[in-house]
Amino acid sequence: MNSTRTKDKLEITIMKKIIVAIDGYSSCGKSTIAKALAQYAGYTYVDTGAMYRAVALYGLRHGIITDKSIDEKALQDQLDNIHISFRFVDGAQHVCLNGEDVETQIRTLEVGNGASRVSTIGFVRRFLVAQQQLMGKEKGIVMDGRDIGTVVFPEAELKLFLTASPQIRAQRRYNELAAKGEQPDFAAVLADVEDRDYRDTHRAESPLRQADDAIVVDNSDMTREQQMKYITAIFDGHNR
Length: 240
Fold this sequence. Notes:
Low-confidence stretches: 1-13
Radius of gyration: 20 Å
Shape: globular
Number of helices: 9
Distance between the termini: 44 Å
Strand content: 15-25%
Order of helices and strands: EHEHHEEEHHEHEHHEH
């Protein structure tokens, strides 16, 4: 008597690693969601905004950047002396400038404003874009910024564009600064958000814009949990 044995087949799906590009306006929570998505996917996270903040901090410390001007020649001459790296401290990614942990120092309003200004300079963008492209060479990366899906990784498999109203973004920024012990003025924070929006979208070099194939996420009325659930669903659906 012949018997037929049916063998269960174990199907193993190996998920290919992709590049996730997250762009959007300031104070939209790009870094927060990018970090969370990277952790969810087991990917590497790169905060490109922090890289521009590190350049701005260097310029402020060396008198290259003031409230009224930027000495572009001096900044270009000093680029080879600016070394930016990332390291983990208690499970959180910190930015290092020339070996110094400057995670706290780069998160001030002054440095943020300086970062927005240096980001309009072509040679600064080219300097940092080259570094960012090297970081994503092996894929399996989540990178957020202003021009990731349009300039840094136009071939990224998944592009997200985050937005929210200026008033809501200003309130988020105000709360963040207040939580750090600062005493911000809401009108000044809102004016800064609007100024940065204008600079980001009108600069000649790599202006902020939505990539044609980006998925827009307006998180004005979303909690972090709702946003995370929505974006991980997009990631899972895209990566099947």
